[in-house]
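ligand=flavin-adenine dinucleotide
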Amino acid sequence: QADLEQPSLQETTNFCKMDKDSLVGSSCDVTFTEINDINHKIRHDLLSLVHSDFFKYFKLNLYKQCPFWSDSNGYCVNRACAVDVIEDWDQLPEYWQPEILGGFANESVSADKARDDECAFLDQLCDKSFAQKGQKGPDIEYCDVEDFDHDESVLVDLTANPERFTGYGGEQSSQIWSSVYRENCFSMNETGQSLAKDAFYRLVSGLHASIGTHLSNDHLNTETGKWGPNLELFMLRVGNFPDRVANIYFNYAVVAKALWKIQPYLSHLGFCNAYHEDVKSMITSVVSNLDSKIFNEDLLFHDDISSKLKDDFRSRFKNVTKIMDCVHCDRCRLWGKVQTTGYATSLKILFEIDSDDEDVKQTIVDKLTKYELIALFNTFDRLSKSIESINNFEKMYNDSLLTASDRILALFKGNNFFKLLSNAGKSLSSSLKDRSNESLTLENQTEKLSSKIIDSKKLDVESIGNVTDEIKTALGNTVSEVTDIGGVNISNSDFIEHENVTEESLVRDGESEDEVNETNITEVLEKKGASERFEDVIMPPKKTVVKNQEEVTGNSWSNAWTTEIGNVKEALRFIFTSYVDLPRNIAKMALYKLNNLWNSFVGVPSYVNDVDPQEPAYKLSIQ
Ligand SMILES: Cc1cc2nc3c(=O)[nH]c(=O)nc-3n(C[C@H](O)[C@H](O)[C@H](O)COP(=O)(O)OP(=O)(O)OC[C@H]3O[C@@H](n4cnc5c(N)ncnc54)[C@H](O)[C@@H]3O)c2cc1C
């Protein structure tokens, strides 16, 4: 419900407002940017590591009863909630087979027996057993490590059951999350509690946010049936809440510090070198990029009083891991169990390996069960994947905020389009200058022509002056409309058909055919060689000179015939020239649109009127 009240993606800028150069937390001497850099370096090796045969199998009891309340209130029936457990032992690689490992002398051993001995078998996989518990000492466990050895436990290939959107939600998951957050109500009121309480909250919130990131990143698009990132969902669950994003980074720092801390003792362990030689080198290359300053665990529980707080912290976190047994969706339960076990292991390493005695440290690491180690590295991988996804989502988010003009700008910049456009602008402006010169010549010609007309026809001086002024204005605009925008010469006049200044326009502008002696105009133009000079001037078809009224009325059939033929010719000419003009018109339209976009981008009004000012160039005679 709270999510429904969230602002829409476009209304929020929280994602961008995060200061990535600030520290991840008061107990972390590392910035968000530094963690991004570390993650970038280790991502590949970490991924290979968790796909290795040692780290990809996890064992858990999927059918354990919820210890806190009756869980008969529902199951997740989606296919996506299901976990594919390993039932067919034969499908495992050869080196996992009992006979290869020498774990079972008798090949006829029953499948059940094999399952029972699975733990022993897995222990034999490595040079050193991770399952030795040693004698009972003080409780240093943050999760129930006995869980893995349960009769009903199943072996799961984590890579075959990715953590992603399952559709699990509603009251059931809400109940789980509120129980998890309720564990954060520490009863003690002592110094340091606020830091511990804060750390506890950040751990569970970071887990919650990391799960939210994965289900948004690997989300089922019900329309296309494809899995992929869903930015809108991510923003609703995580992206709009910088504190949630920060908590993922905090968890990353906590787990990374735990790995850094056990690094010297890991070298003592034989990680299945016989089967996967790279495992050790992959661990080294991941952990060697981590730094002790990434998280300072000493700030949390540093004196005797706080040891009580630590006990409280430990038992509360253990409860969180147990709450995972109440999750109805198996796939969610699997990953909830893996990750809470991973955090529990990190906390054990951080808060219990505090002795100065190297042997004690080594013993604690040696006592880590194989499943704790698997959970630890897989939890680190989950956080690493979350951080990678957050960075991808941020790119998607920024892209979604780009306006259309920004996109064009980015495109132009990326393709060095400005250079091209400026070159185009130069050639355009020079061609326009040429055209302007031609137009000025035309203006002179027209003026001379006008005076000729005045002389020859002794017409009203004023009306001819008007005609000339109109022509001048039209020609003047052609020159003045060359605008310089941001160093790019784009002429609006290019979008105006200035070829319009034709003999026909002279005729039209010069009032009626009666007043302007068309023959004289043509004669003058011919004398001046105008047709050579004004190559781009489209000459209208010669008008049919109507000689006298009698001929017209006397032969109306032939008149109609001539008109129809004229119309057909005109139509054919129109079709033909349309094809010829098509490429040029497309180019002009593109330039026109670009100019409009540019004008709106730089915030100036559009100079070009969308309405075509010209009269149609072709007119059919309808009688
Ligand atoms: C252990 C566990 C594992 C799960 N794994 C998966 C999975 O793999 N795939 C899958 O699709 N679903 C999974 N879910 C379900 C998923 O976490 C959500 O509960 C579900 O998608 C419904 O989401 P929601 O928007 O209703 O709010 P929820 O995520 O259920 O959150 C409830 C309330 O908690 C608050 N909140 C949300 N996130 C945070 C945060 N990071 N920090 C602090 N407060 C927060 C908000 O106020 C929110 O309204 C899992 C649930 C659990 C309990």
